[in-house]
Amino acid sequence: MTRGPLFEKLFEPITIGKITVKNRIVMPPMDTDFGTRDGRVTKRHINYFVERAKGGVGLLYTECASPVGPEGIATPYQLCLHDDSYIDGFRELVNAIKSAAPDVKVVLQLHHAGKQTTSEITGGIRPVAPSPIPSRSFMYPETPRELTTEEVKERIEAFAKASLRAKKAGYDAVEIHFAHGYLLHNFLSPLANKRTDEYGGFQGGLKFARELIEAVRREVGWDYTVLVRINGEDLFSEGGITLVESQVIAKMFENAGVDAIHISSGIRESDHPLADMTVAAPQGAWAYMAQAIKKVVKIPVIIVRRISDPFVAEEIIRTGKADLVSIGRQLIADPEWPRKVMEGRIDEIRPCLYCNEGCYDPLFRNLSISCTVNPAAGREEEMRIVKADIAKRVLVVGGGLAGMTAALVAAMRGHKVTLVEEDMRLGGQFKLIRSTRRAEMAKLVDYYEVMLKKYGVDVRVGRKLDEELVDEVKPDVLVVATGSTPVKPKIPGIDRPNVYSVFEVLSGRARVGDVVAIFTCSYYCPYTCAKGLCCGSGYAAAFTAELLASQGKMVYLLAERPEIFSGMYVTTRPRLLKRLFLMNVKISTEVRVKEITEGGIVIEKGGVETPIAVDTFVYAVGTKPQKPTILEALNGKIKEIYEVG
Ligand SMILES: Cc1cc2nc3c(=O)[nH]c(=O)nc-3n(C[C@H](O)[C@H](O)[C@H](O)COP(=O)(O)O)c2cc1C
Ligand code: SF4
Q1: Is 279 close to ligand 1, i.e. is its CB under 6 Å away?
Q2: In which domain, by residue range, is 468 found?
């Protein structure tokens, strides 16, 4: 196995407390909700984490656990470790990880949701907090109950006892979660801690945190590794924990006997652009926070957030901004990231899109995680790719994401695969993302191109499905993945020359003027928006608006439905809307476009008709499937025909 010399620092071992970690790559705690309703480990956890351990990560966090049972869970199926009967389940998980990857170090994060939960999730227990101040996020409407001084001390003990249970279960370390707006973070936050007892205010919060670490140490001893996760900054436009306060907090933790500080940032309602979880935020953008913390402590510092580019990861370590890098969603998307980087196979990494569609957002809809680009995430056994008993000739028509995936999986299973695409480039509509400010997401197309080549798929671009092709390839199996075409809204004037589909704009085929109206989220769209399910036209409209506004154009974003982008969910939608607002995009909902005229459009809102002067009209109102015309003629000629996408 050869190590890419470019990533020397990333693969240097490091000592944290009593453990030596084989490299600088950390999989941070990420709730999966694969647990049972009473918070126990399942086989699904085991398969999922074993796969990630085998991928070569140095420090692996399994999902967080509540030390107080249901009161502390943020999602319904989160794990718990509030009594000894839970230890065996965790032990089984750790043993499975260690037998698959003996050199990986395993950490358990202990977490109390505080006010960032609901009575529904906790099974009827009212959320608790240092002070009865509700979260500013609409997701947590209840005013939390203030913990009494006695109850605060009980919670401290609960963390200590759960830490000992983690040690008994075989974990190499525990991490105490002081970040992200949960209970322990709230004790340190000037906005959330208004107590008047010994734990009140910033000094009281520090006392609370110190006593908690002392209690943990009393239980686990000094021969065990203890980490904390804190926010470098809360990333509010006003208020919240600042970097200077975090330096004080970090120093206090070091003095209290903590072995490493894991820097994260933000809470649910953080409104700073750096809190954006998508590709709109730069890679490694939070490294400056770790750098500031490293100035005041000598123990190792870990940094997280949007680090999937191995060059960025190496640079962070090499320049001493942090000692380890946490790579979260990218390890859901491709658990083999560490191994591929180590072996210099960077172009074979399946990139995370940072979309949150499969992983983060479902948690807020009480669903377990999955992944947009990795169907095997959380279904490792069912989706394992195995060699087929009989190798077949497979013809895939359509080189969009669905077609490329079908072709790749078929080839990995040992079939002889031909992939044809009418366009001169692979990627279907998705490749158009390259021209937006989200171009990083197009790495997914690059990944497929590399992998199709690696697995010997015969890729033919600029080629249509016809009888001649079928006669030549003689497929046993035909996979039709010919995608869709945009729905054209039936608006008078829609055939004017200054009217384009969003795809025409993104493909550079449109002559876009200076004042543009983009019409989306309309009843013309054949799909029904559901929470957490955007048909894609919303994204196309949003990214086009973002692109055109960044070019200095005046952009109207008009939605016919009462809510724009209602399918997008909590971790992306609010920040996207704010971003568009800051770019001066004019968003209006419940708007009907009555007519497209020579000088603009006529809209109707609330029964009032208004003309708006625009020079370009763009629509993104859903798509409809398109099928090759000769498909019916092929029935009977090819044994198996499947339609995908
Ligand atoms: C599905 C999911 C669950 C998460 N659960 C937790 C958690 O339980 N505790 C925690 O501290 N952070 C949690 N996080 C935050 C991650 O640890 C990490 O900080 C975040 O994903 C940013 O890193 P990334 O950009 O590399 O994904 C979660 C993130 C995701 C996507
Ligand atoms: S669902 Fe999206 S953000 Fe989450 S891991 Fe998969 S690609 Fe990344």
Answers
A1: no
A2: 393-483+628-643
